[in-house]
Amino acid sequence: MHILLIHQAFVSLEEPGGTRHYEMAHFLAERGHTVTVIASTVSYLTGTVNKTARGIQQGGPGERITIIRTYTYSAIHRSFVHRIFSFFSFMISSFIAGLRVKDVDLVWGTSPPIFQAITAWALARLKRVPFLFEVRDLWPAFAIDVGVLRNPILIRVSLWLEHFLYLHADTVVVNSPGFIEHVKERGAQQVKLVPNGSDPRMFDPQDRGEGFRREFGLQGKYVALYAGAHGMSNDLGILLEAAEQLQEYPDIAIVLLGDGKEKPALQEQMAKLGLNNVTFLPPVPKTRIPEAFAAADTCIAILKPIPLYATVYPNKVFDYMAAGRPVILAIDGVIRDIVEEADAGLFVTPGNPAALAEAIRTLAENPERGDEMGRNGRKLVEAQFDRAILAEKLTHLMAELLDD
């Protein structure tokens, strides 16, 4: 089958950002399917423009993956209004590019951003093929709860758009069981779960990342690592407050790896607090993530204390576990159930810097216990959340759609 994926934030292993769709596309290509991806030239994580990327690129097993990068307004990190302009520009340019893609059997749309899913729906209907809508984030609900989306008119339009897409998708795929009730209540009729996961073959739990530690001056430290977006939802100010409480423990280093709109403000907060135990590192491509995680002693997942975030399965948590590192989890809900049932880390109440600092200190003082938790998490990923297994499930869902 020939699958057309519309995904503004699509990245390869050589770029920083989430690679779920890159890995899924390669799995499909390895099984003889053809995948065409329409993506942006602007990094969703950093906001930088890759001017050389625009156009068509071939890649993947047997050249069965084609990536078409189209124009996108580049000021994605300036403000919410600029971000909307970015989304709409890609929605239009990806639609035009999609019209030129021939012999498509299925269109795969993904959200967020939700606007690109309109492109996927329209192309599916014009090409008279099934529309698979993948929900990775409960937008606009998350944006409303965080306070990013406040305009009443925009809220009404966004809620209508969400309902429309759920109602008109041939299948809605969610990456967390916590999303199922939400999407069904808003019109989704055929809902399937393909959860987030990781590729354990990318990670060697025995590697201690000595080269990465030397590169960034982390030798001899107990490294507590956060990796990922530095945005409003990530609540990294709380992590800096926890770091302030750990300054009397000079062997503990807090490392924030990644980028995002809030990073300059966080660096300013670090300076105001006079923190000497915090290191900000630039984002790295997925090919370097294994060595970054190997250099960590524990890994942190954190979101704002918003009830709706209890529905999420953050991808980074599965990568942390695949790397064999204990997870400090400042997120309640379904992902807490996973981590605690596997005995793969410590839960702390979201929004509580004292509890976060205490969890880091506890694991630093009990490294053997942390190693045990890391092994437990690794076993869970291998058994239930291996991305190869999940990609196989997605492939079967797509085949079933074509058979209906």
**Arrangement of strands in the largest sheet:** 3-4-2-1-5-6-7-8
How many DSSP E strands?
A: 14
Order of helices and strands: EHEEEHEHEHHEHEHEHEHEHEHEHEHHH
CATH superfamily of the largest domain: Glycogen Phosphorylase B
N- to C-terminal separation? 14 Å
What's the number of helices?
A: 15
Low-confidence spans: pLDDT under 50, at least 5 residues?
A: none
Into which percentage range does the β-strand content fall?
15-25%
- What overall geometry do the principal axes of the alpha carbons give? globular
CATH top level of the largest domain is: Alpha Beta
Number of domains: 2
Structure class: alpha/beta
- Average pLDDT works out at 93
Stated plainly, the CATH topology of the largest domain is called Rossmann fold
Percent in helix: 40-55%
Q: For the report, how would you describe the main beta sheet?
A: 8 strands, mixed
Q: What is the radius of gyration?
A: 21 Å
- Reported CATH architecture of the largest domain: 3-Layer(aba) Sandwich
Word description of this protein:
- This protein has helices at residues 20-30, 80-99, 115-127, 141-146, 152-168, 180-185, 210-215, 236-245, 263-273, 289-294, 315-322, 334-342, 353-365, 367-384, 387-403; strands spanning 2-6, 34-40, 55-59, 65-70, 106-111, 131-135, 171-174, 191-193, 222-227, 252-257, 278-281, 298-302, 327-330, 345-347.
- The protein has 15 helices and 14 strands.
- It has an eight-stranded mixed sheet with strand order 3-4-2-1-5-6-7-8, with helices on both faces. Strands 11-10-9-12-13-14 form a six-stranded parallel sheet, with helices on both faces.
- Helix 8 (236-245) runs parallel beside helix 9 (263-273) and helix 8 packs across helix 13.
- The longest helix is centred in the N-terminal third of the chain and has 20 residues, at 80-99.
- The chain is an alpha/beta fold and 404 residues long.
- The chain has two domains: 2-197 and 386-403, Rossmann fold (3-Layer(aba) Sandwich); 200-384, 3-Layer(aba) Sandwich (Rossmann fold), CATH 3.40.50.
